[in-house]
Every structure is written in structure tokens, then in C-alpha cells.
Amino acid sequence: MAANLQQRIESLRSKSRLLTERYAEVLEEKRAAEAQIDELRAQLQRQQREISHLRQQIENLQVVTTISHNRKDVERSRAFLSQLVRDIDKCIAELTD
Predict the structure, then answer these.
(1) Angle at 82 (CA atoms; ends 88, 58), nearest 5 degrees
(2) For labelling alongside 20, which of 28, 36, 55, 61 has CA 20 to 30 A away?
(3) Nearest 5°: phi and psi at 70?
(4) What's residue 69's pLDDT?
(5) Cα atoms in the 13 Å half-sphere on the side-chain side of 81
(6) DSSP character for 61?
């Protein structure tokens, strides 16, 4: 009976160690996931600021384009605006991923 009790105690100790190890692993995974979430949030904020900045540039260029009557300048501004729109689309695509 003492041997049976000793086996049960050893079994409980073994299970307890295993549980403690698994808990430590899960806790480390949780910390890593939280760090990744924080980094992704920071990245999202940076991209949102960049999008806002690019939109402001587009708005400014639209104002300049309407004021400018030189055909060459208008075409150059349109090309620049098109590039900005493509950059914004890329940022939006990255945000949705």
C-alpha cells in the first residue's frame, strides 16, 4: 500500500511539473503575442499618419493644379497625384492584410 501511495505521489509530482512547464510555455507565447500586437498597433498608427499626410499632399496638389494654367504643370501634377494615389492604395492594402 505504501508503494502504491508513493507511486501516486510521484505521478502527481510528475503531472505537476508538466503542468508548470506548459504554463510557462503558454505564458511566454502570450507575452510574445502581446509584443507583436503592440508592434502591429504602432505600425498601423504610422501607416495611418502616412496616409493622412499623403491625402493632405493630394489635396494641396489639387488646389495647385486648379490654380495652375500651364498644361505641362497640370500633366506633371496629375502624374504626381496618380503616384500618390497608388502609394495610398498600397498603404491601405497593407492595412487590410
Answers:
(1) 65
(2) 36
(3) -75, 125
(4) 64
(5) 16
(6) H
Task: Yes or no: say if 54 and 91 are a contact pair by the CB < 8 Å rule.
Answer: yes
Whose grid coordinates read 502504491?
4
Q: What pLDDT score does 51 carry?
A: 94
The rounded average pLDDT for each run of 10 residues, N- to C-terminus, in the chain (97 residues) is: 85 95 97 97 95 91 72 80 87 82
* Per-residue DSSP letter, 86: H
φ, ψ of residue 68 to 5 degrees: the values are -75, 135
Cα–Cα distances (Å) from 38 to 34, 35, 50, 96, in that order, read: 6, 5, 18, 17
Which residue type is seen at 54?
L
Instruction: Give the C-alpha separation, 66 to 33, whole Å.
Output: 49
Q: Are 65 and 75 in contact (CB under 8 A)?
A: no
Distance CA 62, CA 26 (A): 53
